Amino acid sequence: MTKSPHALSLPAPSEKQTYVTISALEAGHLTLPEHLFVTNAAPEKRTTVPSLAFLIRHPSPSKILPSQSTNLIFDLGLKRDFTKYRTAQQHHASQRQPTITSLDAAASLRAGGVDPEKDVDTVILSHVHWDHVGTPSDFPNSNFVVGSGTLHLLANGAGPLYPAELFNADELPFDRTYELPSSNSSDAGKAAKQQTAHKWEPLADFPAVVDYFGDGSVYVVDSPGHLIGHVNLLARISPTKWVYLGGDCCHDVRILTGESDVAMYDDGRGGLRSVHLDTDAAKETISRIGGLLKRGEVVTDGGGEVDVEVVVAHDKGWSEGNKGRFLPGHL
């Protein structure tokens, strides 16, 4: 096909291209008042949505058990035990009731034949809000990977709307947690502990991605706006199919398609805010991701058309319509 001048261009598969397998995981549910997240929502409407996690299987040998493939988890959803949240986190969670914590991520893995204590090499968190951090202690042999600035955020918060009380400095096992380097060269070296083997490069319409395995199968995408350190994943599952895991880039797919917009509401300080730390940056990220949804306009750099499936963390419609793609099924 002829490449459109406006098409997004993803890398063509190499001669011995590696592909990954992705399975969705149940990782708890919470209830969102829609008017805080999306425009044109009825003030009284509340919807119980999933907080999705994902198992990504890469065919390279696991560092934990070399006889099996590498298992990577993206996001962990809710904690099953709310007493493990700090008081301010519990107060915030009380405004998102009802919540469901069974199954959580660890239980979903076990039900699908994966042992979280022995079979998971790495957990990548899209960000560290309470409904994505899950229970890290369920993964005692896993490394944790977070976006740049996350460790400082956990200890210090991010200003008056995101005080330190909403985070837990001890949330992650520090000796097994690595920050990706800053995608801003002026910030290089500031993180307490960085995954220095990884380097940000542009890809398609995204200014900064990391080729996580170095083989073009999984890219960590710097996705600023929602929270400090927010990252997404772009993964190749076949010669013509990619999956984009969008975390909390937005909370309603109508925002990605342009049917609705990010809601703004009173910040209690005489101004307006959204659910994003930096609304303008979040909208830029949303616009870039939205470009992946334009069928026929995403191609490889060799000219072949590809399909990109975008899944955001709280997409109730996707979750209900894709039960066969949860572990032990796959996308």
From TrEMBL:
Matching InterPro entries = MBL_superfamily_lactonases, RibonucZ/Hydroxyglut_hydro
Cofactor requirement: Zn(2+)
Keyword tags: Hydrolase, Metal-binding, Zinc
Named from the GO MF annotations, one term is: metal ion binding
Q: Which SUPFAM superfamilies match?
A: Metallo-hydrolase/oxidoreductase
Q: Can you tell which superkingdom this protein's organism belongs to?
A: Eukaryota
Q: State the family it belongs to.
A: Belongs to the metallo-beta-lactamase superfamily.
- Protein name from the UniProt record: Metallo-beta-lactamase domain-containing protein
Organism field: Mollisia scopiformis
Its taxonomic placement starts with: Eukaryota, Fungi, Dikarya, Ascomycota, Pezizomycotina
